[in-house]
């Protein structure tokens, strides 16, 4: 028999180095801080770009634009079956190879619309119009500029640093090991949502990084499945903070009774409001005690990717900075192919509930950023249930060094 969960446990006692003081709001509103993030974070670390299922056949490609790095990247499966990544830049005069209206598709080669240079799927130069008029053109050195690419559990990650400082496996570390073995590839049905929000990317990320808001934001919807008399504030449990990444288990009330429609849906699958079922479908290291209070694993992979796994589905969030006050949010809900009409109904119900919860989550982001931009609030007052938010700012500052350098400059000026 498993021991009861202490829902009022203070996780800061396990991570005292984080401190308990206020956290500056400046990283969310400062254009200068944003520039430092561009230079020291997004252009240097591994970023989730997609999944292998997006490129099933030779010639299949998609383009990922990364505005904060002023970069556009082509991911393509070659004739040899290998997936590669290249800068979306012609190596003649710098024109884009793939334009905005054709960001996914299948091609035998890439051709520039400016002067007609073409490139094979492996990035090598295929043809140069009027080649005889160039002076000793070395085509072997004119291939598309590669971008570092690696895979983890079917997820494609890229790194814009020409010489990444570490492998993807080393970057993901213990969290990558913890999340390994989940049947991601079996969940091939993907429901995608995307919105441009007038808010800093961290304001958006933070909103999904704690359950303190559940009672207020989701109280009349999915929130009722996530709190109980034993845990009225929906406190997370099993919090783990890593060098860069972090995770916690979001609570689910195993006694929750869904609506009549929800009960019908639950007969045919693991819906997003059912608690305590399907735990044996999880890898042994995820919810190892098979607690019925397990809802999902809330995992944040630095800097801008979140993945949550639960029986019957997993879902992700990604936050792409456009500027210090604008962000693209992408939410994806992954489910296995339905085997019959009952399972299809169950999944439609489940992802609709999930979508509505996300609408509630995103509803406060722009208002939050507007409030921060007013300058009325200079510091966040963070509680223990917001420890993942606190950890996120600590890790970011470790990379950026914005306040550290400011203090050093002030000391040197004395």
What does this structure look like?
The structure is a single chain. With 414 residues, the protein is α+β, with helices and mostly antiparallel strands. It folds into two domains: 11-25 and 181-402, Naphthalene 1,2-dioxygenase Alpha Subunit, Chain A, domain 1; 47-169, 3-layer Sandwich (Rieske Iron-sulfur Protein). It contains ten helices and 19 strands. The protein has helices at 26-29, 31-42, 168-179, 201-207, 214-217, 260-266, 341-362, 365-373, 387-400, 402-413; strands at residues 23-24, 47-51, 60-66, 71-77, 83-87, 104-106, 110-111, 118-119, 125-127, 148-152, 155-159, 189-197, 237-241, 246-251, 294-301, 305-310, 313-323, 326-335, 379-380. The strands form five sheets. The chain has a seven-stranded antiparallel β-sheet with strand order 12-18-17-16-15-14-13, sandwiched between helices. Strands 5-4-3-6 form a four-stranded antiparallel β-sheet, with no helix packed on it. A three-stranded antiparallel β-sheet has the order 2-11-10, with helices on one face. Strand 10 and strand 11 form a beta hairpin. The relative contact order is 0.16. The model has no long low-confidence stretch (mean pLDDT 94).
Entry keywords:
10 helices; Naphthalene 1,2-dioxygenase Alpha Subunit, Chain A, domain 1; Rieske Iron-sulfur Protein; alpha+beta; 414 residues; globular; seven-stranded antiparallel β-sheet; 2 domains; four-stranded antiparallel β-sheet
